[in-house]
Amino acid sequence: MPSDVDLMRRALALAERGRGFVSPNPMVGCVLVKGGKIVGRGYHAVFGGPHAEAEALRVAGARARGATAFITLEPCSHWGKTPPCADALIRAGVKRVVAAVQDPHPRVSGTGFAKLRRAGVRVQVGLLEKEARFLNRSFFKAHITGTPFVVWKTAQTLDGKIASRTGASRWITNPQARDLAHRLRGESDAILVGGETIRRDNPSLTSHGRGVDPVKLVLSRSLNLSPRANVFKKGETLVLTGRNASPARVKKLESAGL
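Given the sequence above, the corresponding structure tokens read:
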């Protein structure tokens, strides 16, 4: 029979499958166990879709009664886009909940655990908490500090350069590094670049299918940007400039729908 730690690790691995597709929600995984056997598995796959607990309960069906749920985050206790998971666990007859960490969201934060305990469900909190916090580090930082989790991505040569002497080099990375960059975009809500990047590289700044495309932010004092640049062709792009920006260039971009 798998240990509690093994089962929570399986729940964390399930949660990871939602990376890039659930923001601003956290990644969550759930494993239901009864009689030493896994009877249900689930993870939050897409924002607005079923939560991990709901999916695991759907898979388990009647076998969920009397089971133990291993969940990577406190079950939600309020209605959002989906019903409260704490209520669903209670209705299904789950007898024990092992959660990795308490949800920092002010609408949840302890209320899910309290609801379960009032219903007679045994609750254990803190198993692999460090790993669960790291999994959703951007979610925790946002709700605890009120500030975003920022990733600085740059590629450079061994001698510290980010381009050739002429600036003509498009890539100094390999396919694996570029795939990582696409994954980072898919995990992010927004990506910020300067106008010079748009002029020299003409990037699309999409996730290339590695997640939901981020909102694209372009900083440009000069507004010397082509309305036909790739960054403006797909998804939402915002251009941020100074108060002294050229009115003619502002009008040119706005007339193109930017």
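The first strand starts at residue 29 and ends at 34. Try to locate this feature in the token string yourself.
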